[in-house]
């Protein structure tokens, strides 16, 4: 595969993921647990087909081979999924997706603390800059009464960071089998937790179909394209390409629903996205000076 083709695939993946906010806004009233349950119902078989295609029919074997790191990563994805949906329901799409962008920095900190991974000086500087943006957005959320949505978004980013660190700890070369486990664990958790919280999984047909479309069309297809495309793209460049999700998600809800973001969200989000871009650019420069 050529580099240009990989770029297109990764950008299209980000484009698909950017539609989550708009999709959630069109739900009739399903709660977060119901959404992640039905999303996983469609996500798991879709990803199993993809894993089977890549492993020549050995999908189940690949999933079971993830071991304990896969189990931990899958459990972390429960928090990532639930926090992601709830945050979009509880705050603006812009506020939620900007905070999702903190995931790479949380991954760096967890990898340093738990795995002893080295963190570049430029990354620490970017983390400090990102923390400023996060502080501004969380403070804004507190003032607007949307603190729970902001905290859920950060919880989602932390869950994804935990998932990433678990994959690294197990030296897994493919994240897809762990995502499959995450979908299975999410369905099981939703089946037990939702009724205990007084939330039903049997929502309207419209919400079930929309949630399943999010799982199979937006999430699974996007992850498949991202996985294929990322194979020919340097790791430092991936955040720059996939950030299209963060930039476009607020545009869709503004364009189709008239939803706008507060000044604090725009300022904090701009600072956070700038930190992601600066960190990626510094990684690209560092890669360029390494002797061949």
Automatic annotation (TrEMBL):
Q: What Pfam families does the entry give?
A: EamA
Establish whether keyword Ligase is in the entry.
no
Record-linked InterPro entries: EamA_dom (IPR000620), EmrE-like (IPR037185)
From the record, give the transmembrane residue ranges: 31-51, 63-88, 94-115, 122-138, 150-167, 179-196, 208-226, 238-257, 263-281
Signal sequence span is none
Residue ranges of every copy of the EamA domain listed in the record: 5-138
* Assigned keywords, A-Z: Membrane, Transmembrane, Transmembrane helix
Q: Which SUPFAM superfamilies match?
A: Multidrug resistance efflux transporter EmrE
Q: What is the name of the protein in this document?
A: DMT family transporter
